[in-house]
Amino acid sequence: MNWWTFTPRSKTMKLLKDKKIFKYLAVGFTAFFVDYFLFLLLNQATTMPVFSSNAAALITGFLVSFFGNRLLVFGADKASAMRHTLHKQLLLYVALLIVNTGLSYLVISGLENIGVSVVVGKAISMVFIVGWNYVLYKKVIFRQA
């Protein structure tokens, strides 16, 4: 068997072949940078408390993420189908935003209590958010009929 005819069968390779995961990562990185740098700006350059700066950054990043994922990653084929489900998707997304905001704050403040800077804590919390969000986006929020 030659290397150019080898077709890996593992789940990881199938996942890497899926264009959707690459689009998700591109949208996710964009949302991450918007969220993270807005958090840094609000937390470091103002007197805004950690919870408020984190919430504002998460909301802004989630808006970028929601519309990017809805339009580019998990989008419906027809605009009319997308309008029909927009309210349901937004409601689920807002619920996820609330959960993510609370869990993120708990991770950041918990790590801060043991001496980890809020900047590092924010990055760590975002790693977890990326993982469970993909599953929830695909299986619940943007589920295709």
Describe the protein's topology.
Layout: H1 11-17, H2 19-45, H3 50-73, H4 79-113, H5 118-141
Helix pairs in contact: 2-3, 2-5, 3-4, 4-5
Tags for this entry?
145 residues, 5 helices, single chain, mainly alpha, disordered N terminus
> How many strand units?
0
Could you give a short account of the major beta sheet? none
Indicate the percent of residues in helices. over 70%
Shape: globular
Count of folded domains = 1
In the predicted model, the low-confidence regions spanning at least 5 consecutive residues are 1-7
Classify the beta-strand content into a percent band.
under 5%
Element order: H for helix, E for strand: HHHHH
Q: Summarize model confidence as the mean pLDDT.
A: 79
Radius of gyration equals: 18 Å
